[in-house]
Amino acid sequence: MNTYNASIKPTAYILPVKEEFPLKNKLKTSLFSLFSIILLFSLAACKDNGEEKKETVKPVRVAEVTRSIFYAPQYAAIEKGFFKEEGLDIDLQTTWGGDKTMTALLSGGADIALVGSETSIYVHGQESRDPVINFAQLTQTDGTFLVSRKPIDNFNWDMLKDSTFLGQRKGGMPQMVGEFVLKKHDIDPKSDLNLVQNIDFANIASAFSSGTGEFVQLFEPQASMFEKEGKGYIVASFGQESGHVPYTTFMAKQSYIKDNQDTVEKFTRAIYKAQQWVQETDSKEVADVISPYFEDTDASIIAMAVERYKAQESFALDPILDQAEWANLQDIMKEAGELDSFIDHQTLVDTSFAKEVSK
């Protein structure tokens, strides 16, 4: 009796337990499935958001006419993340010369060019169907310095007479400004000195270093490097002599600006942020930030060059290319014999983006 009752109790007790496990398993399975679905949707949403963010990053190919500390705000805009903040990914290439830079822009090898504004006038003179438009100014004075082979305590521009002077490429802003300044000091570049301007832009510094010429027109950091190495001595600034001029400007084909207005505005805003940052920041800190672009140049030289450019207001404080600067540019071009007729400001300059971001 006891054995029977004992065997019945476990059986009666076990039956509900067998019924309970399938229910729990079903519930666990349902919850797991639900959790999996939620997780998959979450991952998909994250992926979609990631892809959406990735898609909003706009690549922009920029061709700069040369690599110079003169363009410090551009490098600062990249290194400080100002372009990145605007959703732009900058692909920077150095094209070494105005003709090569403009070729890259016109052929579609670059979206935006950083080059002298005179190049847009040359393209306009060829009656291009897709003119090149200046939309953001980076520098507002000439960026070259007059370097003498020997130290001169009391420099006078008359000292250039009867000398051999290594100028820049004919028709380019450095050369035109150089001639403009010489004439300002009653020196005829064609008859009062031996003007050498058949040396390729990238080789002018090395030509002077090897012994050619008594004076040379150089950008930074070459000018300060020569001074430190005892190869030359800065005796004057063409930027201080020439006044404000749209020396280097960001420009693009009219069709690109029309199809990418949002991108152009973001680009200009990043440049404006960089212009303000460079102006408000100690030159040594600016030098530290842009040093990756000048790996072979001593940090003290970079800082010295930045300070020189800031002192003579070479870095534009905003990206607006105004009418007075445009007129000064054409006066210089006309004096150099490179301009047949004046071109209205609004024909090749669009200040709408610069004015919008500078508000």
Automatic annotation (TrEMBL):
Q: Which UniProt keywords apply?
A: Signal
Record bears the keyword Flavoprotein: no
Identify the GO cellular component terms for this protein: periplasmic space
Query: What SUPFAM superfamilies does the record point to?
Result: Periplasmic binding protein-like II
Q: What is this protein called?
A: SsuA/THI5-like domain-containing protein
Principal localization?
periplasm
Output the superkingdom of the source species: Bacteria
The entry sums up its family as follows: Belongs to the bacterial solute-binding protein SsuA/TauA family.
Q: Where in the cell is it found?
A: Periplasm
